[in-house]
Amino acid sequence: MNVFLKWKIVRIILTSLYLMVGWILFTGSLALFSLFLGGMFSFLVALLTYSIFIEEKEAARRSLLPHIYLIVIYIFVLLFKIYLASFKMVFSVMKGNINPRIVHFRTRLKSDVARVILANSISLTPGTITLDLDEDHLIVHWLNAKTTHSHFASSLIKGHFEMWLRKIWI
Amino acid sequence: MMWIVQFFMGLGIFFGIFGNIGLLRFPDIYTRLQASSKCSTTSLFSIFIACMLLEGFTPMTGRILLIALFFLVTGPVTSHIIGRHAWERGVIPWKRKKVKD
Predict the structure, then answer these.
(1) Which range marks the domain in which residue B9 is found?
(2) Could you tell me if A15 and A44 lie in one domain?
(3) What number is the average pLDDT over the span B52-80?
């Protein structure tokens, strides 16, 4: 059997498994008919979308099967930081003293999913929005800029996120 | 239990109001985007948490959890698209005049 054919089959099975988990969460029932219907349709959707969901060249093991328990912890950390960020935002709305700047920096993450999640996490936390993500180069708008030096800015903005994501996806 | 639900609902209303005030007060598109996107995400999350606590441990809670996770993905993406479009169009960000360095 050809290697590419094997890899294609593995991709289809993984995609339909992910879709199946979503279906079970959404219906909330383990009846036989519901499971059969979900399995059939997730296989059908997986046949259509497997090449978008998992790219052919992205074959690292951790990019397909990340550490699930670390993701759960990461979501709670993120939620806590979002609340902190929103309180800071409310204070800066009240006072009105802002100092917005644009900063550029790079990230060390390899996997595409990890990079997108890093960009989304940056968009969600203290006064920063990702304007552009080109390969590993991020352009970030920062509301209360403390420095314009790229290295210090990256360590202040990325902070813990990059460490967590490297643990999850590598 | 009921007062925790009320607390989270109140938090949602509080953040929603301040997000809209920020939208009116800040000077240019990027800063307005910051205020609106961040506070709206937090207010929606507070309301989701309140709904989950109100519902208890039922299949509906799983659905709300799924919607919340979906919003965690789509919320920043929408703000990123608006910001990226402004950045590509060449909108110059607002700067404070006197900078103390």
Answers:
(1) 2-89
(2) yes
(3) 84
Cβ atoms of residues A142 and A156 within 8 Å: no
Task: Give B79's pLDDT tier (boundaries 50, 70, 90).
Answer: confident
Residue A50 shares a structural domain with residue A77 = no
Q: Mean pLDDT per 10-residue run, chain A (170 residues)?
A: 82 87 80 88 88 72 69 86 83 80 83 82 80 83 79 79 78
| A-interface mutation test, from B42, B94, B99, most A Cβ less than 10 A away | B42
**Cβ <8 Å between A86 and B73:** no
Contact A129 B30 (CB under 8 A): yes
Q: How far is B38 from chain A (nearest CA, A)?
A: 6
Q: Is the pTM of this model over 0.80?
A: no
Whether A80 and A145 share a structural domain: yes
- Distance CA(A99)–CA(B31), nearest Å, equals 10
Whether ipTM > 0.85 holds is no
State the Cα–Cα distance between residues B54 and B64, nearest whole angstrom: 11
| A interface residues, B as partner, C-beta within 8 Å | 22, 25-29, 75, 78-79, 82-83, 85-86, 89-90, 93-94, 96, 98-102, 119-121, 123-124, 127, 129-132, 139, 141, 143
Sort out which chain A residues have CB atoms less than 8 A from B77's CB and list them. 120
Chain B residue nearest residue A29, CA to CA: B59
CB contact under 8 A, A82 and B37: no
The mean per-residue pLDDT over the stretch B67-83 comes to 85
**Section B31-54 average pLDDT:** 86
Contact A138, A122 (CB under 8 A): yes
- Same domain? For A55 and A72 the reply is no
Q: B34, B81, B97: which to substitute to probe chain A, counting the most A Cβ within 10 Å?
A: B34
Residues A52 and A75 in one domain: no
User: What is the C-alpha to C-alpha distance for residues B81 and B86, in angstroms, rounded to an integer?
Assistant: 9
Burial environment of residue B3 by CB neighbours within 10 A (0 to 12, 13 to 18, 19 or more): exposed
